[in-house]
Amino acid sequence: MGRRKVEMKRIEDKSSRQVTFSKRRSGLIKKARQLSVLCDVEIALVIFSSGGKLYEFSSSESLARILERYHRHCELESEASKNVNEALRSYTELLHIVQSQLEEPTVEQLSVMEKQLDTALLETRARKTQLMMESIMTLQEKEKLLKAENELLETEIAAMDKNEDKNEVVIGFNDPKHLGHLSQLQTLSLLR
Amino acid sequence: MGRRKVEMKRIEDKSSRQVTFSKRRSGLIKKARQLSVLCDVEIALVIFSSGGKLYEFSSSESLARILERYHRHCELESEASKNVNEALRSYTELLHIVQSQLEEPTVEQLSVMEKQLDTALLETRARKTQLMMESIMTLQEKEKLLKAENELLETEIAAMDKNEDKNEVVIGFNDPKHLGHLSQLQTLSLLR
DNA sequence: CCTTCTATCTATAATAT
DNA sequence: TATATTATAGATAGAAG
């Protein structure tokens, strides 16, 4: 998108590399912002220049929050794939055993295999359920904490509002010269 | 860059929002890759679709490494701001000492005190607000993840139920007695 | 949901200031 | 080094399959 096509490899000339970095960096961040707005998605973008300077963009107020979410996501994924892999492994092992030992599987052997598979399945499901339950418990706990915190804050705010009048009276009473400053003090006490 | 200019706001039509997300997402990742190659810089890009699906790009082999670097960077920054805060604190202490030694505070001293109180109050409130916001965001986050996980589970279960019949036929062919167990067996083999 | 096709819009390389 | 200009490469919206 310039006067000529550009090869996709490191720009050797330091100066023009710097210029390109500056231009394309802002372009990239702009694009990221557009995507997050247009499609209502969360985006985190981190860029380290070769000089070690940090440039960042995040769709929400906190990049760290998105990165946390990323970590959580990865953990869940690896957890899930671990379960699947285990189930697959035992299934495969069982099949090998059965196939190597049998010309024709007997009813009993099939039955054993079924039981084992059944167990594996139940375990997998239990693990998933557990993960979900843990999430839910955490969620509920946080909700409680949040409510408590809210109440506390409201109480505090109410208390602050009540105390405004006293301060105004006390200072204004002793020295009328302070009136000019009182407005600041009052404003202060009004800041929620 | 299309048939017409697009307003920079959330695309309301779900279908076209999805299409745009798909197109622009790949465009953004492509741009990120180009920037990292052309200018030899480290880039980490994380995108969460509204459905909770993760898309990512990183210039180096490990996104986690870049994020670690990011965290280190932030820690250094917060270290610096900590120093500033400490300086502020000692300044405040000094003021307290001075004020406690004076019989009658001067207008100027009161004024300074007011400002400091103001700052302290604002900081405290901002901190509380921040804490609340963080809690809320986390809560919402978990809700999203939970929903996504639920959907996944439901999909899996639905798929499991669907596929039962096939296996029943195969195994049931040899021994009809096993029908009762087959449903579980098949469910297992469906585990990804 | 993916591709392909283009008309159009956007980003930017080269250049100048 | 930053900003502005301009020609061109590149991205993509909309439509169709």
From TrEMBL, chains A, B:
<keyword id="KW-0175">Coiled coil</keyword>
<keyword id="KW-0238">DNA-binding</keyword>
<dbReference type="InterPro" id="IPR002487">
    <property type="entry name" value="TF_Kbox"/>
</dbReference>
<keyword id="KW-0805">Transcription regulation</keyword>
<dbReference type="InterPro" id="IPR050142">
    <property type="entry name" value="MADS-box/MEF2_TF"/>
</dbReference>
<keyword id="KW-0539">Nucleus</keyword>
<dbReference type="Pfam" id="PF00319">
    <property type="entry name" value="SRF-TF"/>
</dbReference>
<dbReference type="InterPro" id="IPR033896">
    <property type="entry name" value="MEF2-like_N"/>
</dbReference>
<dbReference type="InterPro" id="IPR002100">
    <property type="entry name" value="TF_MADSbox"/>
</dbReference>
<dbReference type="GO" id="GO:0046983">
    <property type="term" value="F:protein dimerization activity"/>
</dbReference>
<dbReference type="Pfam" id="PF01486">
    <property type="entry name" value="K-box"/>
</dbReference>
<dbReference type="InterPro" id="IPR036879">
    <property type="entry name" value="TF_MADSbox_sf"/>
</dbReference>
<keyword id="KW-0804">Transcription</keyword>
<dbReference type="GO" id="GO:0045944">
    <property type="term" value="P:positive regulation of transcription by RNA polymerase II"/>
</dbReference>
<feature type="domain" description="MADS-box">
    <location>
        <begin position="1"/>
        <end position="61"/>
    </location>
</feature>
<feature type="coiled-coil region">
    <location>
        <begin position="136"/>
        <end position="163"/>
    </location>
</feature>
<feature type="domain" description="K-box">
    <location>
        <begin position="71"/>
        <end position="163"/>
    </location>
</feature>
<dbReference type="GO" id="GO:0005634">
    <property type="term" value="C:nucleus"/>
</dbReference>
<dbReference type="GO" id="GO:0003700">
    <property type="term" value="F:DNA-binding transcription factor activity"/>
</dbReference>
<dbReference type="GO" id="GO:0000977">
    <property type="term" value="F:RNA polymerase II transcription regulatory region sequence-specific DNA binding"/>
</dbReference>
<protein>
    <submittedName>
        <fullName>Agamous-like MADS-box protein AGL70</fullName>
    </submittedName>
</protein>
